[in-house]
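In the design runs reported in the main text, the only information available to the sequence generator was the tokenized backbone. The following block is the verbatim input for one such run; it is reproduced so that readers can re-run the procedure and compare outputs position by position.
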């Protein structure tokens, strides 16, 4: 039988991991992820979770030790945030190239400097091109459900890539809500028999080299490197369909259906749309509802899967609107806008007509993005639809 509990987002992630039955967990605490580590350690100590817990000296070692475990055929789990992710970066970069089907929660936090330990999505957006799949959650329930889904995707033979399950620091990590924990038998049936890293499993009886040196001096030549890179891109493209299938199967088994790539909210007749990602989406939906009460035809597109980016799904969702406002919780320094905004611009390129878009940046360093902030974004986007030109991003919390 499923169990209903009242927990924060970090405990929801810990339960999602525990129900997925990893063989090894390696973690190192960092705000706002630290309590997730504590929940996992308690689950293992209390016998609720049958896994080896590796207590290492830092995040670089966390992922390094899990590489060995995954290569030996173990299902693994970890979690990190911000500066911990920065310290983890060298093995983090290697993980997708090795095609290791790992799951790691990113408890999103803004990054230094200036010094900050509060929520933001700069950490995830900074590593978005490394080759990991990225999913973003809106609620504590979605966190718990998405982690088993992530394992299903990561371990699929046509994917074999690591997955980051992102949830916003502070707002979700410490925010408490009702969560329905699925029955263990349901999760076991959903994930099926473990088959981790079947294509490169370390075996003393069958020695093999892992991560060979490629290049002219080795005789392998750059073609080998190209084949690896092309294969990784192929796994990313295959992941789009696998993500949809995994979410559909989860819905059939649990009765909870999550939008796998993007969620379209009140987009049926929308003339103007907002695009959001993560926990901000709830307030954005409230703002859209209020605008609808005033007779304005507003809609919203929430991104669940950010990598691989669902380009054509986004383009189709925005094909009939007259303007788009994209709200980011991070900064794209090279383009003076939000990183999600830049992705949406690329998707809009695929439309036969030009749809104007503008960038809104808010929620940095844990600042709240309220319904009132979204109302401001709606007003500016309506003006864009009426012909006003947008050049600079709008910084929503600049005067808060």
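Verbatim output:
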């Amino acid at each position: 039988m499923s169990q209903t509990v009242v927990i924060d987002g970090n405990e929801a992630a810990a339960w999602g991991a525990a129900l997925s039955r990893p063989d090894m967990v390696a973690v190192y605490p960092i705000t706002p992820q630290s309590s997730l580590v504590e929940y996992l350690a308690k689950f293992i100590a209390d016998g609720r979770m049958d896994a080896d817990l590796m207590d290492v000296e830092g995040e670089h070692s966390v992922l390094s030790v899990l590489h060995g475990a995954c290569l030996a055929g173990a299902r693994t789990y970890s979690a990190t945030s911000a500066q911990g992710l920065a310290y983890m970066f060298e093995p983090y970069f290697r993980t997708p190239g090795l095609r290791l089907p790992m799951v790691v929660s990113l408890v999103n936090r803004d990054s230094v400097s200036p010094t900050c330990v509060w929520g933001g999505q700069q950490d995830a957006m900074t590593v978005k091109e490394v080759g990991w799949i990225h999913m973003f959650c809106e609620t504590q329930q979605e966190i718990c459900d998405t982690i088993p889904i992530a394992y299903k995707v990561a371990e699929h033979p046509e994917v074999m890539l690591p997955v980051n399950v992102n949830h916003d620091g502070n707002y979700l990590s410490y925010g408490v809500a009702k969560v329905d924990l699925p029955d263990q038998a349901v999760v076991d049936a959903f994930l099926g028999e473990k088959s981790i890293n079947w294509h490169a499993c370390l075996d003393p009886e069958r020695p093999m080299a892992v991560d060979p040196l490629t290049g002219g001096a080795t005789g392998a030549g750059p073609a080998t490197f190209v084949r690896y890179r092309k294969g990784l891109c192929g796994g990313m493209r295959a992941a789009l369909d696998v993500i949809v299938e995994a979410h559909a199967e989860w819905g059939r088994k649990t009765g909870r259906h999550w939008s796998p790539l993007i969620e379209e909210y009140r987009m049926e007749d929308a003339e103007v749309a907002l695009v959001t990602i993560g926990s901000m989406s709830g307030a954005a939906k409230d703002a859209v509802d209020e605008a609808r009460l005033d007779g304005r035809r507003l809609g919203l597109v929430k991104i669940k899967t950010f990598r691989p980016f669902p380009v054509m799904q986004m383009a189709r969702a925005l094909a009939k609107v007259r303007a788009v406002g994209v709200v980011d919780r991070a900064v794209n320094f090279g383009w003076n806008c939000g990183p999600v905004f830049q992705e949406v611009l690329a998707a809009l390129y695929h439309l036969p007509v030009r749809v104007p878009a503008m960038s809104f940046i808010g929620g940095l360093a844990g600042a709240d993005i309220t319904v009132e902030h979204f109302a401001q974004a709606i007003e500016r986007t309506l003006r864009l639809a009426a012909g006003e030109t947008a050049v600079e991003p709008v910084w929503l919390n600049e005067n808060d």
